[in-house]
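#struct-queue
[09:14] JT: dropping the first one here, sequence first, then the structure tokens:
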Amino acid sequence: MAKTIGLLLAAGAGSRMGQPKALVLGAGGVPWVITSARALIAGGCADTVVVIGAAADEVAALLVDEPVTVVEATDWEAGMGSSLRAGLEAIGDDHADAALVHLVDLPDVGPDVVDRLIAHADPGILARASYGKGPGHPVLIGRDHWAGIVEEATGDRGARDYLVRHSVLDVDCSDLAAGLDIDDVRSMLGK
């Protein structure tokens, strides 16, 4: 079985939320950074890397007892691309076949979605969860693509431009989650 590393992007300031999304309390009062990291672990990722930035000390303190590696993106304010680069560079020497990139603001994406995606892991794969409304997250990135994505990831586009130019397997997860990030939900509610 291919070795997949979970890569949780949790560095943003959450300006529309009024606080870093990593610190938002979800079900049972558990911060999203914890529930998101646990989804990667329980879903079968061999290891999990959490990229932090805004409120780095506070977020890192929450993760002390979790079986994760914490990486700080020092240029996190430049956007998701810098967090993605920092995470992929941190796992670059780990002999993994793929990285499963998850976002901290997808509270309904659980281990079942992670498990379904990593079943497709291999060094040449590009795959993403689909919820019946276009491309979603998490995104599975095979090792063969890491260098190209690190080179291109900028601003808030992350790997989007790279994925547009390559063949990407859409993995239907609409029976498992809605896959809406919290900003989409707030927009729909007019908040």
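[09:21] JT: and here's the second one, same format:
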Amino acid sequence: MLKSLQGKTIIVTGGSRGIGRGIAKRFGEAGLNVLVVSRSLVDAEKVAEEIGGNASGFAADVSDEAGCKAMAAAAEERYGGIDVLCANAGIFPAAKLWDMTPQEFDTVISTNLRSSFLSVSAVLPAMTRAGSGRIILTSSITGPITGYPGWSHYGASKAGQLGFMRTAAIELAPRGITVNAVMPGNIFTEGLDGIGGDYIAKMEASIPMKRLGTVADIANAALFFASEEANYVTGQTIVVDGGQVLPESLGALEAMA
């Protein structure tokens, strides 16, 4: 049983949909004050309303330094401090290398990787004053472990997050701040609505547990990293993928039958 996190404050970037929405709602259920951050204030406030309690929405472009500073200031003004940051904002537009433009590459790196740095930098003053803090990055198995055609820029950004995490964890440890990452596999979100049962079945066939993950699976891993029980864990990753990265080939899964 995890010790209560009730009354603490979390910022969730990219919190209006998908995994971010699931994380925001799970932390709200755990009794935290939740600042849901999205580029759209309407979308952020909608999720905050779903959470209820001490949740609120905030609009910011977290690839922009001023936006991140405003986000951190809002959390301190509304809730008196910042205990947890979940740097979850990310995009994954598909583009093969022969079609990808430098602008498309830069946009993904800026949204996924630069935003992690800027979000962390923005919350550091509050966490340093408190003498403690939890930073949780939403990375991916794609990039650090696997690859997928069309996602070279996405994979680079997610691998980069882990390189950033390891040095940040060393630098921030003396301040009582931990930095860890959750690495999702294939997770069912609203983004998969309408793709068809056949496509989902093919995805599930490559996973030993024979199902896609849920946003709750990712949120629960993030909740552990935020807990008091994880106060001696830093610079680490949890892969949440139903065993997807384990088989050496599809033949290994067929041999299970």
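[09:30] RK: nice, looked through the second one.
[09:31] RK: The helical segments are 18-29, 41-51, 65-79, 102-130, 152-172, 197-205, 215-226, 250-254.
[09:31] JT: good to know. The chain has one domain: 9-243.
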